[in-house]
Amino acid sequence: MAADEVIIFRDDDRLVLEPVSRNRSLREVLSELPSLDERLPTIADPPVEPEDIF
Known about the structure:
With 54 residues, this protein is an alpha+beta fold. The protein has one helix spanning 26-32; strands at residues 6-11, 14-19. A two-stranded antiparallel sheet has the order 1-2. It is elongated.
């Protein structure tokens, strides 16, 4: 395994070893993601109309 630590737990009759990943910053995680080549649609966001609730 490529980790120094693992989490060990039992799943029914199996013993599971999961490597503990180091805490990475959000910037590190986002830098590894592929960029999106699509445009998001414009969403109409009109102001809220006043409402008499009493």
